[in-house]
Amino acid sequence: MATITAGMTITANDSSHATTPGPLRFALSLSESQALTVDRVTSETKVLGTGTVKILDGSELLAVDSDSGAPGSHGGFLYLKNTTASDLDIYVAFAADDATEVLGSNDDQHRSFTLKQNEFAFVPWDCTGDIVASGEGATILEYMFFNRG
Length: 149
Known about the structure:
By secondary structure, the protein is mainly β. The chain has one domain (38-148): Jelly Rolls, CATH 2.60.120. Helices cover 5% and strands 50% of the residues. The chain has a five-stranded antiparallel sheet, with no helix packed on it. The protein is globular, with a radius of gyration of 18 Å. The relative contact order is 0.29. The model has no long low-confidence stretch (mean pLDDT 90).
């Protein structure tokens, strides 16, 4: 087993700050950190186009462990980042197995979130279904999946 430490810090001035006002009437300083036990890492950089691409197959990841996908005992932590040099979006979905959603359409109910240029996400994932993505054009998605140990 190995340990990674995930952290997040959010800071902002109050809304009346003279040069860089924040979104709230008070200054914000939020910081979280958690040590996480992991045993495997899957990592890749994918070049995406406008078609939907399977990034991670939850069924394949579940097959590696013997816990049958029991909630809280399987899964892990997913890091995704849009590293595209130009200002193009990447659309991501937690999707049913072998889904083929059109994630870039304005009303696709399957799209979970959009990563704009240099934005990232770090979320827990139980390996249910698949992770799929598409780009607004030629885009680059970096991802790492840290399997819960």
